[in-house]
Amino acid sequence: MYKSSDENRSNQFSKHIKHYKIPELLTLSSGYELSDCEISYETYGILNKEKNNALLVCHAISGDSHVAKHDDSDIEGWWDIFVGPGKYIDTNKFFVISSNVLGSCMGTTGPNQINSATNKYWGADFPEISISDMVLVQSKLIEHLGIKKLVSVVGGSLGAYQAIQWGIQFPEKTQSVVSLAGGSRLTSQSIAFDIIGRNAIRRDPYFYGGQYYDKEESPDTGLALARMLGHITYLSQQSMSDKFDDDRYEPKDVDTNFEKQFSVGSYLAYQGDKFVERFDPNSYIVLSQAMDKFDLGENSISISNKLKNKNLKWFLISFSSDWLFPTSLSQELTKALFMAKEQVSFVEVPSNCGHDAFLLEDDIDYYGKYVSNFIEHIFIEDENTNSKQNKKSLSFDHELILDFVIGSKNIIDMGCGDGSLLDYIKNYNQGGSLLGIDNNLDELLHASQKGIPVLSLDLNSDLSIIGDKQFDTAILSLTLQAIDNVEKILNEMCRIADKAILSFPNFAYYPLRNMLYEEGRAPKSKGVLGYEWYNTPNKRYMSIVDFEEFCSEKKIKIINSRFLNSNTREFVQEEYNYKADLGIFIISK
Amino acid sequence: MYKSSDENRSNQFSKHIKHYKIPELLTLSSGYELSDCEISYETYGILNKEKNNALLVCHAISGDSHVAKHDDSDIEGWWDIFVGPGKYIDTNKFFVISSNVLGSCMGTTGPNQINSATNKYWGADFPEISISDMVLVQSKLIEHLGIKKLVSVVGGSLGAYQAIQWGIQFPEKTQSVVSLAGGSRLTSQSIAFDIIGRNAIRRDPYFYGGQYYDKEESPDTGLALARMLGHITYLSQQSMSDKFDDDRYEPKDVDTNFEKQFSVGSYLAYQGDKFVERFDPNSYIVLSQAMDKFDLGENSISISNKLKNKNLKWFLISFSSDWLFPTSLSQELTKALFMAKEQVSFVEVPSNCGHDAFLLEDDIDYYGKYVSNFIEHIFIEDENTNSKQNKKSLSFDHELILDFVIGSKNIIDMGCGDGSLLDYIKNYNQGGSLLGIDNNLDELLHASQKGIPVLSLDLNSDLSIIGDKQFDTAILSLTLQAIDNVEKILNEMCRIADKAILSFPNFAYYPLRNMLYEEGRAPKSKGVLGYEWYNTPNKRYMSIVDFEEFCSEKKIKIINSRFLNSNTREFVQEEYNYKADLGIFIISK
After folding, report:
1. Collapsing DSSP states into helix, strand and coil, what is residue A314?
2. Residue A322 annotated as catalytic
3. Which residues of B touch A523 (CB under 8 A)?
4. Rounded to an integer, what distance in angstroms lies between the CA atom of residue A437 and that of residue A474?
5. Which of A276, B316, B364, B560 is deepest in the core (most CB within 10 A)?
């Protein structure tokens, strides 16, 4: 049977909980006017004098304000690995605010509390709420704390929805938004799971239309079933196999009235029973419904209309095995943000852990560091962030591309690696927007460390996430030879940018010709041609003349070109198809 | 409320149902002795005089004996698209038997029937049954019909388990097994869904410990919830989006006590309510439990131990978006069958339809034709199946490989295309085993039409599905130049076969040399080199000498080699790296 919030988890950390009763009437998105709304929250770290180091963390469906321990004697927080002194969200630097959401049962006004108008439990009379209402309540708290602008709003799952909604509703009150395992709306599949969970609760004979607080029994079975189902969707197929296959027929000995077969069965029974002790069925209905109805639009165009002129920095992170909030949803939102001309980074973290990944240590080296790089750079953005890099540290290829780039403000580097080219470019394009794409997350992490917006993407996959003419210049440096569909990527570069700069090795450079002609061997050189025939990532072997002919056939305009000998670091004017080992082209369509 | 079988669907096709009461006591796998077991079944087509054209079709969890219409006036069968006159399982040729499984509620003995020993409904006293028990009951029916050996046992989902179990339990009574959307056992994720379904039924207050038949109420809510959940797992994420996204907020107007929000909600409510009308909660528990406990082993080694010396032909089909019985399960079983030296074909059908794909028309052009090719070839296997192909119709490359193959019995062609080489080889290796691999399902379908066992697999992916030294000879014809990991595939060829034969274009053939040297252009020729630099599937450009050096470095033995000029169709002895355009090697490790 459900125990009221005084008896459950929140009681254990209640000494840290603060309460703020919102003095004014709140008009909810349904039109309902809510009075006496009280918000429970906790804070970590110290708000600086300028009050510009505050950050709001938003919790998921079953979470609470206790995001982290306040000290060693404190009970565990739900995101201790992420938030705390020296952690990825460093409470030595940031003043972290975490509040319980409206409609929950962990302190903030919700169905398990007394409605002051009737002096009865709210129960099923609790008004339908939306993510927007949750965010409205949080904004009142931020105001109360005297904070004009947050560094960021950060959250995962339902928390990600709140962060995203902050960006839409109060863009002037935050500098940035971080969404982990979020997206633009749920899939029909995910909604279906929520519906079954709500049906299990509402059709439990002890639901009593939601007014079970004074009864002997409450809809525990329904809530436990909903929670069991939730747990399957939080894990991935792989992580469930990893967790339960080895002792498939050896269930843990749990005290339960649910089925006791299979190790996964005992896990579900335990999770279901435990949840009933600490969560309120009405809150589950209210919150899951708010989640199901969060919908920024059915496609990137309709979504982007809600995102225009926010002038925020966004960082979206998805997890490859998350099927509750699949990567495609974050990609759709990223695409819409690009269309709305917002500054956005998006990274898909390869993970076995499913939706829960953002709460687990397994992949924190990626998602933790990316978030940490992002929020730290926002915080120091007023400082001089010019690169300390010396032009001499650039590769010859990059040095030459740089000459072509000067004058461009908005630049995308496709295959940016550690971001050193863009980092150097930063010196010249104050106020411009940069983006680095790479599919190597370790390299890309270096780029994010340099404060460059990043996008994890395989250049051979779909580039339609990036809008038309979003950039002045697109760069593809020494990468064309490893691309599957050459025509497609060149078309895409010309679509997303006014001009495209690309460099590639010339396969007709005379030592390569000689190698095949005289020795009868697959040509090989150094640098990007420094592989053996059987292990090279290259798959396109073109000469400068091949490329020129290709452009002419495909109606691609060559605006400029340079041919180089990278050994002598000299330009080649004559017989370039013979004497140059590198071609650099500016093209457009 | 559940209606007994007389009132439901089975009543509508009951005029075609036949009944057989098994005279003897059946000892179930649990040790329970079941008396008076009665099996309901239907038959289609005519049993020939030799009684060798019979085929058993097995149904999934909610199915029945009514696999297809008997005539135009008949009600719909559950597999009308697949079974019938002129259909993929052609009842003009085959005598098709379809029976209701033990433990179901559609006619065969199950919990909703009267236990003759107590004169009460079986209810929860119905013994726990296994897939093996279902198959035992079916075998009694086959015996009763005077059939010594079936052409095949065919089934999908729970039906696939029955087909596979037939192969294990009664290998002498069938020539082959066809498994659609099956596997070696369920994933922990799939078991978890079943557990929640059973918990919903058993914890429904109207379950009355399973003895609800005489009560006013039955556990309808629990069964409906279980069915709703089932329906999510039968579809894919993509197919649910396709089905429900367009009218997400426009639920159908269904008469239900379940949630009415969202179009997917009205679908689930409708499916849940409808199921309660025709299915028995106890049967759902009994059958889902049997499914969860079907387990051939945790890995291919343990599975293969159960599959040895069956001497059957197996055909496994999985569907790419099926996450209830994912492809990996069929692959594991395929691997085990290879290890057990059974003849096995496996095809993964690309599909958006999820687990339900095997019941739907969307992908039937693949799965229907593959199954049809397979069973027809089994039926005519005694006929002379020698290829009518003329040696002259073979390509020059194949003609030469053929010389190297003579004497080999067990041959795998990696990248077999339409199977013409293997088809020709058939003439010479009576009693040997052949296998064609390709990732092009349309080409592979032609191979299956020729009666060649097939395996749909990308050669760049994992080949570990095939066991060590399974074949005498592995062939890789004109494909090496398009392989990602050359070293891996050569090692794999040497692992799975005693010797490997491979042919590839010589990149140092003099016209190619000249093209690069004199013209400064990416070399191009005809055949596999007949692409442009920007669209060629090739990614490895090696000369004969490159390959020879590679073998020497990697300790690969070259047993034999031939160098050819395919224009003149002559062997090249001298200056082969210059004058030959094709190399053929036999290698081993």
Report:
1. strand
2. yes
3. 516
4. 11
5. B316
- Total domains in the fold of chain A: 2
Helix, coil or strand: residue A435: strand
Pair (A518, A404) in one structural domain: yes
| Tens digits of residue pLDDT in A23-68 | 999 999 999 999 999 999 999 999 999 999 999 999 999 999 999 9
Q: What is the pLDDT of residue A2?
A: 52
- Tell me if residue B407 falls in helix, strand or coil: coil
| Residue closest to A225 by CA, chosen among A255, A187, A256, A252 | A256
Q: What are the Cα distances from residue B346, in Å, to A192, B350, B375, B421, B431?
A: 33, 13, 14, 20, 21
* A221 within a domain of the structure (yes/no): yes
Please state, in angstroms and as integers, the Cα–Cα distance from residue B246 to each residue in A330, A410, B215, following that order.
20, 36, 42
What confidence tens digit (pLDDT) does each residue in B100-121 have?
Answer: 999 999 999 999 999 999 999 9
Q: In this structure, are A289 and A395 located in the same domain?
A: no
One domain, residues B273 and B131: yes
Q: What is the DSSP letter of B485?
A: -
Domain range for A192: 187-293
User: Do the domain assignments include residue A39?
Assistant: no
- Quick one: A440 and A571 in the same domain? yes
Q: With cut-offs at 50, 70 and 90, classify the pLDDT of residue A551.
A: very high
- A395 and A528 co-located in one domain: yes
Contact between B292 and A262 using a beta-carbon 8 Å cutoff: yes
Select from B328, B359, B377 the last residue of a domain: B377
Q: Is there a contact between A292 and A201 (Cβ–Cβ < 8 Å)? A: no
Whether A408 is in a domain gets the answer yes
Region B560-578: mean pLDDT is 93
Q: Do B417 and B495 share a domain, yes or no?
A: yes
List Cα–Cα distances, A451 to A180, A377, A407, A433, in angstroms.
19, 6, 21, 11
Which of A64, A133, A273, A322 is labelled catalytic?
A322
Among B192, B235, B289, the residue with its CB nearest the CB of A268 is: B192
The token pair at A120 is: 């009865």
Strands (E), A506-549: none
Q: Are residues B290 and B408 in the same domain?
A: no
Structure tokens at B572: 């090249």
Q: Which two tokens stand for residue B264?
A: 């997917």
Helix or strand run (H / E) with residue A397: helix A396-405
In a domain, residue B32? The reply is yes
> Which CATH number do you get for residue A465?
3.40.50.150
CA A435 to mean position of chain CA atoms:
16
Indicate whether A549 and A417 sit together in one domain.
Answer: yes
Assembly ipTM:
0.95
Mean pLDDT throughout B501-507? 96
Q: Which two tokens mark B370? A: 């593959």
B473 touches B414 (CB < 8 A): no
List beta partners, residue A89: A83
Domain boundary among A265, A293, A321: A293
Tell me the torsion sign for CA atoms A75, A77, A81, A85.
negative
Nearest to A187 among B241, B265, B577 (CB): B241
* Residue A24 Cα, gap to closest chain B Cα (Å): 32
Contact assessment for residue B303 and residue B296, using Cβ atoms and an 8 Å cutoff: yes
Residue pLDDT, tens place only, A278-299: 999 999 999 999 999 999 999 9
CATH number of residue A272's parent domain: 1.10.1740.110
